[in-house]
Write a structure and sequence with these properties.
2 domains, rod-shaped, EXPERA domain-containing protein, transmembrane helix, transmembrane, EXPERA, membrane
Length: 220
C-alpha cells in the first residue's frame, strides 16, 4: 500500500534537513561550538512533531499497527532524544551550551596578573639589594649624612628610665642608620656618662669595624 502524503513529507524532511544536521551536529559537539544551539532547538521541535504524527497514526489511526511494541521500540528513540536535547539546551536557563571561552579568558587574565606580580616582586627585590650594597660599599657617605645639619637627630629621654632613644628624621634608611638606631640604647646604657656625640662616634666606629670585617670575608 502506498504511504500517505504527509508520511512522505516527513520522510523528505528527514532526508533534506535531518541528515545534514547530524553531520554538522557531530562536528559542533566534538569542537564544543555554541552555534549549534539554535539548530538543536529546530531539530528537536521538528522531530517531536513528526514522531507525534507517526505514532498517532500507528496507534490510533485508520491503518494502525498490530505490533505496537515493535513500533514503540523502533520510533521511541527518535522521540526520547529530542526531548533530552531540549532539556540540555533549554535547561537551567543557559544561553550557551558551553562556556569554555569565558573560562579560558579568566585563566589567561589570572596568569597575566601572576606574571605582573612576579615582575614587580623582582624589581622591588633588586632595589632593596642595590640599596643595601651601596650602603655597605660607601659607609663614608653615610658618615657625612649623619654629620650634616640636614640629617640632624632627635633625642628623646623618657622620664622614668635612664635609657636614651635615637630617631632619625630621614625617611630613607640604610644599613648604618638601622644599626645606629638599634644599638644606640645599648651604648647609652653601657656608658651613661657619655654625651650623644660621643655615642654617635662610637656607633660609627663599630659600624666601620663591622663593614671592614664583612669586606675581608668577601675578599677571602
Amino acid at each position: 500500500m502506498a504511504r500517505p502524503l504527509w508520511y512522505r513529507i516527513t520522510a523528505w524532511i528527514g532526508v533534506l534537513f535531518v541528515g545534514p544536521y547530524y553531520a554538522v551536529a557531530i562536528y559542533a559537539f566534538i569542537k564544543k561550538l555554541n552555534f549549534i544551539r539554535d539548530l538543536n532547538l529546530v531539530w528537536a521541535s521538528v522531530m517531536i512533531v513528526n514522531l507525534s504524527c507517526i505514532l498517532s497514526e500507528q496507534i490510533f489511526g485508520v491503518n494502525k499497527s498490530d505490533n505496537l511494541k515493535i513500533i514503540l521500540c523502533a520510533y521511541g528513540s527518535f522521540l526520547i532524544f529530542p526531548i533530552l536535547m531540549l532539556i540540555r539546551v533549554l535547561g537551567f536557563g543557559k544561553k550557551r551550551m558551553w562556556n569554555h571561552h569565558k573560562i579560558q579568558n579568566k585563566i589567561k587574565d589570572f596568569d597575566k596578573e601572576k606574571e605582573n606580580e612576579k615582575v614587580k616582586g623582582k624589581e622591588k627585590g633588586k632595589e632593596i639589594t642595590e640599596n643595601f650594597v651601596t650602603s655597605v660599599k660607601s659607609p663614608e657617605k653615610d658618615k657625612n649624612k649623619l654629620q650634616s645639619p640636614k640629617n640632624s637627630t632627635k633625642i628623646i629621654t623618657p622620664h622614668k628610665s635612664t635609657t636614651k632613644k635615637y630617631f632619625l628624621r630621614s625617611s630613607t634608611y640604610t644599613g648604618q642608620k638601622v644599626f645606629e638606631e638599634v644599638f644606640f640604647p645599648t651604648v647609652a646604657n653601657e656608658h651613661p656618662d657619655w654625651e650623644d656625640k660621643k655615642i654617635k662616634q662610637e656607633l660609627i666606629r663599630r659600624w666601620d669595624n663591622l663593614v671592614d670585617g664583612a669586606k675581608k670575608v668577601c675578599n677571602e
